[in-house]
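The following block was generated as part of the benchmark described in Methods. Ligand: coenzyme A.
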Amino acid sequence: MQVEKSSFEDIQKCYELDLAHLSSAWSLDDWQKVDDQSYYYRYVLKEGSVVIGFSLWQVDLIEYSSHLLKMVVGSGQQGRGLGRKLLVESEQNLLDSGVNSFYLEVGVTNHSASALYLSHGYHQINQIKSFYQNGEDAQILYKEV
Ligand SMILES: CC(C)(COP(=O)(O)OP(=O)(O)OC[C@H]1O[C@@H](n2cnc3c(N)ncnc32)[C@H](O)[C@@H]1OP(=O)(O)O)[C@@H](O)C(=O)NCCC(=O)NCCS
């Protein structure tokens, strides 16, 4: 199981994982546009050549901050420490690129994801009402290194 920078060939699989696991999924067209923008950083978790998870970040190299837009581990693979591995190794690569802070939004009912982030140094700095399309509130979590 390895984490690596994502290539254009991985986009279809990232799109499928996004669609299957996140309520605010992007279209395939949106995913393809990501590949054109240097401020998006994508990482994939692979078993051999098979993509089983991804993280997608938007990096601001003026503020040296990195915004986690999406992270998914396929449902059949969750609960095995792979989300933690993906988060740790993605962050390390971003740190190596000059980033020194991270932030993200997570739904207030997404207890497994927020437990992962809170146990990995993030803390809540804000809460936004009705952040998601389904009306759910989001916690804003932040971590400075
Ligand atoms: C969030 C997600 C990426 C975590 O990946 P994962 O591989 O299941 O996570 P891990 O097995 O590495 O678990 C890491 C930590 O998450 C928390 N966690 C994972 N599953 C949990 C569960 N069912 N209940 C409570 N906490 C849980 C724990 O803190 C765990 O640490 P521990 O193993 O030391 O107890 C994955 O569940 C997922 O893709 N969910 C759907 C998409 C999503 O919600 N993405 C996040 C959007 S912000």
